[in-house]
Specification:
The chain is mainly β. It is built from one helix and 21 strands.
Amino acid sequence: MKTKWILFLTLFIALGGQYLLAEEKNWIDNPDFEDSWNDLNTPIWWTLTPSAGAKETSIVYSGSAALKITGSNLAKLYQSTDNIIPTQGETYDLIFQYYVVQSQGADDIRLNCAWNGGNVDATHDETVLKQSFSADENARWETKTVRTTAPKNAVSFDVAVGIPAGAIVIFDDFSFKKIDGLGPSMTVTPSTLSKVTTTVGLPVTFAKVIVETANLPEAVAVYITGANPEYFETDVTSIPTTQNTTEVTISYLPELAGNHQASISFEVPSLSTLFQSI
């Protein structure tokens, strides 16, 4: 006589649906140079070394003031955006307006930006954060956008811009903002699975789960827990960050009679808020 098996999958949702991050404020103080100036050369909240800056009121992108820097050796404009405390994998855009009055030939603007914090990877996003470039055309306003993701352990971001000797550049309207909808996300569907029956020793593929991910800092771990994990199997145990949509096949392989239960978990180890289990 054939023995029937009944499978129950218990649903545990730590976070249902999709996890998205909302856009936040501009983390740069005095981004448009409209606030007070320490003197005629340095806007408040900013550091400029050597003192090669000047308040510009004729050529401005918006408002009534901009910052004009005349390169001397290598003039450096700097501000640290403290107290952000980002989540690993969050996406931020650094955007600013620039106007090249005089070019020194090439690489008139040299970025040396970086994330800060204990044990932060010093090479994180360095190809974009430490790039050099020139204007497409002098004597006009142009926009620079630098997109970066927050690394593990980051607590602040340094905005650092260098101007070499011989160049004269005007800056206005800096912003450093988290981008809405571009944070890490993971969706698992369906969120529940129906019970299934089979016979002793006869494996059965009873469910296919779709996992959709975006902007994850590391791979998704797929594993089985519960009362009877030994009777279940998934065709993948890890989903790479480069794969946005993954179909996971779940199989039931009974060896003994009984009602068996298990949970299939999907976990990003460094982001506990994205954990899901069905």
